[in-house]
Design goal:
- The structure is a homodimer.
- Chain A has about 375 residues and is an alpha/beta fold.
- Chain A has 2 domains: about 110 residues, Alpha-Beta Plaits; about 260 residues, Ribulose bisphosphate carboxylase, large subunit, C-terminal domain (TIM Barrel, Alpha-Beta Barrel).
- Chain A has 16 helices and 12 strands.
- In chain A, the strands form 3 sheets. In chain A, strands 2-3-1-4 form a 4-stranded antiparallel beta sheet. A 4-stranded parallel beta sheet of chain A has the order 7-6-5-12, with helices on both faces.
- In chain A, β10, α12 and β11 form a beta-alpha-beta unit.
- The termini of chain A are far apart.
- The model of chain A has no long low-confidence stretch (mean pLDDT about 95).
- Chains A and B meet through α2, α3, α8 and α10 of A and α2, α3, α8 and α10 of B.
């Protein structure tokens, strides 16, 4: 594979230092040795990173774009992260900000196999925003998780995922809980007449995830969740490739390394390796991300990009019924609002609280909001 | 598995906020939902994180120790990272600083199978510090890598690893380069009479790493390298368990997430899951870590800890012959000094430069340094 990808880093340094810092970065993310000691001219031209651009990006901060050789990555998703940021992750003054790939590299990774359309099709929800919740707390036995899932489904939620802490622990092993929860959801769906997807959480190594996927498939599950920064990018890509009918929901666990820009890591790279939906911490909830970061992430997940299917953004954390209008105005309908604690706090009114949330999402008037923003006011 | 592990986080906040921040952390890293909504008392007692201690740790900074339930982790290495820091990695104000495990959890993970003693035994070097270098640059074909390896071995280096960017690319696929390099090193060793280990770099998913390991074993290789933050902790642990005769060298790629303290991540956690040696960026080289951080990392890797074998620290980055005395005084002999670019810059004098470096390490007088530090001076 020939060609170069363009990688943008935000580098914190003074203007005197930036040119040499940029050259060092280009070397660190390619040959990682003094270039003068490379005697092979073709290798120097073909493999060593090249500084493409240096632009100011604030006080003592620069956006440095490096052209890296695609040949150093080929189609290995783990190697992609390694060459984008492996050693430079160890430098405090560098943030990995963005990546521009050649078409053939993007196509090689393939992106989501289902994307937003996949969820809409499975849920019969072609226009509206989607809703999701999580089975909590971990520690509950399968029967209790199934009961909870049945209630959420009765309330009309679109997607019910395992809490990301529910792995394969003795209190609710995957093989014991997933068929049971899937059955409970199927039963509830028979009554409501509306589809609800149960999304179990994968854990362990590639072998254990394969076993879990087979179990999930046999239980009629259509989507699974995985944390790419825990499992490893190569693991996720292999699972996506091997399970073309399964949708993959990405969880951001361990991905908060402050030095990879969230829109790039979660919006672009998770999408690139095949995540159909991306759960991430929403602004204004219990995490500290800004609205700007969240918008950039959702944009990166959904924007036209090398023909890859758009991934469904799943903002989560501190979600409430009251925030629905604000958030649907903010994100538009191509989003899955994930609500957790607020429903569980409703206690015996869980089904009603779920139905309330669902109704708010289904009934949102996007036109009214747009009109309010664009209306010509009569008073000056 | 019963019991609790103690996890220490450095939290940046004011004294008014810290108690509630600590409670939030305990919840985030366990049940991740409002505790009041948990009706199962046994679960509340057994699973919800508990704030164990809050100690000042600087201006507007606190060391918060949370007791997490071992039952949420059991023996899953990926789940360990998930429960230690999965969601909290997404909070800018938290650093994962340390972990204290119960004996049975540490034993469950097992630690290094070979450790420092394993390298000493394989190299016949029972007392002195060890030396290492890396095959660079990536892009070289197998024949050139083999030639370079032969030269390093002729110079008497203990260990030659692949540059961490050398994966399975078309210019030097694993199966093409590893037997060739291993042969060249074996040939050189026959002439020098001193052992040298070639350590190839594993890449891809678990399947591809297994194939690579089998190829390496067949080529007579005794140790392999892997980047746990790229491959995933569960992947590494599985490989360690399946290959009891192979030693594992950890590379720190992608591990620079500034919010897991390096001594914990590289010194303790890499050791815990079975890494026999740990490459990391040395102070005073091209990376910005302090001497204090490096000492803490080396201490964590080597200190008595639940009876786990000590891991061999492998400081790297900007290593030179001139720094050998300083670094051996700093680290003592239980270390592997990794030198890269400085040898390659010697060009046609590569073998001599290698031999120089090796001689400096072998000949280091530890007693002289200790005496200099402890001598009673005649003048006041």
């Amino acid at each position: 594979m020939g060609g170069r990808l363009k990688v943008t880093y935000l580098v914190s340094c003074g203007v005197q230092a930036v040119e040499s810092r940029a050259r060092a970065l280009a070397v660190e993310q390619s040959v990682e040795m003094p270039v003068a000691a490379i005697t092979d001219a073709a290798l120097r031209d073909g493999i060593v990173g090249r500084v493409d651009a240096i632009e100011p990006a604030g006080a003592d901060r620069f956006a440095v774009t490096i052209a890296l050789a695609c040949a150093t990555i080929e189609a290995d998703a783990g190697q992609l992260l390694n060459m984008l940021f492996g050693n430079s992750s160890l430098h405090d003054d560098v943030v990995l900000a963005d990546v521009a790939l050649p078409d053939d590299m993007a196509a090689g990774f393939g992106g989501p196999r289902h994307g937003i359309a996949g969820f809409r099709g499975r849920l019969g929800a072609e226009r509206r925003a989607l809703t999701a919740t999580a089975l909590k707390p971990q520690g509950l036995p399968p029967a209790a998780l199934a009961d909870l899932a049945q209630k959420f489904a009765a309330g009309g939620i679109d997607l019910i995922k395992d809490d990301h802490g529910i792995a394969d622990q003795s209190y609710a092993p995957f093989a014991a809980r997933v068929p049971r929860i899937a059955d409970a959801v199927r039963e509830a769906v028979r009554k409501t007449g509306r589809p609800t997807l149960y999304v179990p959480n994968l854990s362990g190594d590639l072998d254990s995830m394969r076993v879990q996927l087979a179990c999930a498939g046999a239980a009629g599950v259509a989507a699974v969740m995985v944390a790419p920064m825990v499992a490893g990018f190569a693991t996720v890509r292999t699972l996506v490739t091997e399970n073309p009918d399964m949708a993959f929901v990405a969880h951001p666990a361990l991905g908060g390394a402050s030095r990879v820009a969230p829109p790039l890591l979660f919006g672009k790279l998770f999408r690139l390796i095949g995540c159909d939906a991306i759960v991430y911490p929403n602004f204004g909830g219990r995490f500290g991300w800004s609205a700007q970061t969240c918008r950039a992430l959702a944009d990166a997940a959904r924007a036209p990009w090398h023909g890859l299917a758009p991934s469904l953004p799943g903002p989560a954390g501190g979600m409430t019924r009251e925030r629905v209008p604000e958030l649907l105005d903010f994100y538009g309908p191509d989003v899955m609002l994930l609500i957790g604690g607020a429903l569980l706090e409703a206690g015996p009114r869980l089904i009603e609280a779920t139905a309330d949330f669902v109704a708010a999402v289904h009934g949102h008037d996007y036109v009214k909001a747009v009109r309010a923003r664009t209306s010509i006011r009569s008073s000056p």
